[in-house]
Design goal:
Elements lengths: L1 H5 L1 H12 L4 E6 L5 E6 L2 E2 L3 E5 L4 H8 L2 E5 L15 E11 L9 E15 L6 E7 L3 E7 L1
Antiparallel strand pairs: 1-2, 1-5, 3-4, 4-7, 5-6, 6-7, 7-8, 8-9
Length: about 140
């Protein structure tokens, strides 16, 4: 992922947040253009990869329109908000890849990442911080009270 090369600290935080739990949320687009969300699991290695069951609705959505958004597991913030790991989002297009050795029947994809976002708190736990990266545009950071 280019984000690892351009902003390794953001990439590391987002990977940590995604690793904090098993179940992520995948957003796809239905045939009528409305959104669909589904539970999913993914692997973060050299690429972000995931699989889908054959003939599943989310697979049909992705075959029709490969644009997706993926939300990290939601971890309840602690009382000390400065300690919250935050949440993270990835977006991009899913690109078919071969079934991995030992993989279950289905379709497998790598995410061509077009957006990485981390939402967390500043060191004082008083300001919400949204950090985003887009290829070709770089990084943006917004703080809110």
């Amino acid at each position: 992922m280019d984000v690892r090369r351009e902003v390794p600290q953001l990439a590391a935080v987002v990977e940590e947040v995604f690793a904090a739990g098993t179940n992520k949320t995948l957003a796809t687009t239905r045939a009528d253009g409305s959104p669909r969300i589904s539970g999913t699991e993914l692997e973060v290695g050299d690429d972000v990869t995931l699989g889908m069951m054959p003939a599943s609705r989310k697979l049909r959505d992705v075959e029709r329109d490969p644009r997706v958004a993926i939300h990290s597991p939601t971890i309840e913030p602690p009382k000390d908000l400065a300690q919250w790991v935050g949440d993270a989002k990835l977006a991009g297009r899913l690109v078919p890849i071969p079934q991995p050795a030992g993989g279950l029947p289905g379709a497998y994809f790598a995410l061509d990442v077009t957006e990485v976002v981390h939402t967390g708190m500043d060191a004082t736990g008083t300001r919400l911080v949204v950090t985003a990266w887009h290829p070709g545009r770089g990084i943006t950071r917004v703080e809110r009270e």
